[in-house]
Design a protein that fits this description.
Blueprint (H helix, E strand, L loop, with lengths): L1 E2 L6 E6 L3 H4 L7 E6 H12 L7 E4 L8 H11 L9 E6 L1 H13 L5 E6 L2 H7 L4 E6 L2 E8 L4 E5 L8 H18 L1 H15 L3 H21 L14 H10 L6 H18 L5 H11 L14 H10 L8 E6 L5 E7 L1 H17 L1
Parallel strand pairs: 2-9, 3-4, 3-5, 5-6, 6-9
Antiparallel strand pairs: 1-2, 7-8, 10-11
Helix pairs in contact: 3-4, 5-6, 5-8, 6-7, 6-8, 6-10, 9-10, 9-12, 10-11, 10-13
Length: about 350
């Protein structure tokens, strides 16, 4: 799959094995960043031939998705003699992608970057589109740039070693794309959700590819998020608030799935969505959400503050992407606080019953 961008076209390849990594040659001008958990699992099989002074083990937690982490890697890479001919390779999920993408963008005004997304969440969504995002002062993704990798290599066997929490987080974005596709997408994910949960390889490959193909149409038409691409933020305004409220105990994809419930409940209350459609979507979502809500203090003031701080807010009125009766999406600028609180209360009440 070729993604067209203003700065460069880049290719996404989906591999059902590790051959491309096992054959990888690391020259003296290349630096490698590897997720810590991934390194511990695959060090002997995949990473033991990388020279010790040419790789960095990165702990992928939200607290490290900061400008300080990016600058630390920049500092190390300034020791590479090649300078602008330096190359960066990164292995990991969305946090590794955000930090290393930022590094690749700002170091020498842009260096060659290859990304291996190793989580379902990164593989089905964030690996394309070119966004790099860093957290700032406890608020998510306030800093960032647009800088796509030169090449993306997805190796689906990595999904086997994901924890249930991380795997289900990835399914949150998979479900979101299918819901955005409309009736056909909802039906397809209804029919395949059990195979997805079982990590069936062929089913995962199909849904990853289809998710990327769906997103490709948006990002090529609106690369810099000024128009139709904003529709991809469906459920994210609320999802980011749940991440902030939980101090990132709730992972991104799971938070987005929760955000879908909130967004759809607001649409239902407005008479924009049929209850039967909302219930069908929720029946799928409940299968992929496992949140210990009792251990997370639900503070509605914190949630609302996070929503207002979300970068998609452009005025004092609350903005969110909602679904209309024909299941198309609309950026709505008049969402009431009462609507959000009612929908969130419904969500949390049902999570407590699970």
């Amino acid at each position: 799959m070729i993604i067209k961008a203003s700065s460069k076209d880049y290719e996404v390849t989906v591999n059902n094995n590790f051959d491309v990594i096992e054959k990888l040659q690391i020259d003296k001008d290349t630096y490698v960043v590897i997720d810590k958990k991934l390194y511990n699992i695959y060090v002997e099989r995949l990473f033991n031939k990388i020279p010790k002074d040419q790789f960095y083990i990165f702990e992928s937690i939200e607290e490290n998705k900061t400008i300080e982490s990016a600058l630390q890697i920049c500092e190390i890479m300034t020791n590479i003699p090649a300078k602008r001919n330096a190359k960066l390779i990164s292995f990991g999920g969305g946090i590794v992608q955000d930090v290393t993408g930022f590094v690749a963008n700002v170091l020498y005004r842009g260096i060659h970057w290859t990304f291996y997304p190793t989580t379902l969440l990164a593989a089905c969504d964030s690996c394309i589109g070119g966004k790099t995002s860093l957290n700032y002062k406890k608020f998510k993704n306030l800093l960032g740039t647009f800088y796509p990798p030169d090449q993306i290599q997805i190796c689906t066997p990595f999904f086997k070693s994901l924890s249930e929490k991380d795997f289900e987080s990835g399914l949150g974005e998979v479900v979101k794309f299918n819901v955005m596709y409309g009736e056909k997408g909802i039906k397809k994910v209804e029919e395949n959700i059990n195979l997805l949960l079982a990590r069936d390889e062929k089913t995962l490959e199909e849904f990853v590819y289809n998710s990327l193909a769906f997103k490709k149409a948006f990002i090529e038409q609106d690369e810099f998020d000024r128009g139709i691409r904003i529709h991809l933020n469906y459920a994210h305004t609320f999802g980011h608030a749940f991440e902030t409220m939980s101090n990132y105990v709730i992972p991104h994809g799971t938070a987005v799935a929760m955000g879908m419930i909130v967004a759809n409940r607001i649409s239902l209350k407005r008479g924009w969505l049929k209850e039967s459609i909302v219930n069908r979507i929720e029946n799928v979502i409940w299968k992929i959400i496992h949140v210990d809500i009792q251990s997370i203090p639900m503070n509605m003031d914190v949630i609302m503050a996070a929503i207002r701080k979300d970068k998609k807010q452009t005025s004092t009125d609350l903005t969110a992407v909602l679904m209309k009766p024909d299941m198309s999406l609309l950026v709505v600028h008049d969402v009431k606080t009462s609507e959000i609180k009612t929908a969130i209360t419904y969500l949390f009440d049902n999570l407590r019953r699970k």
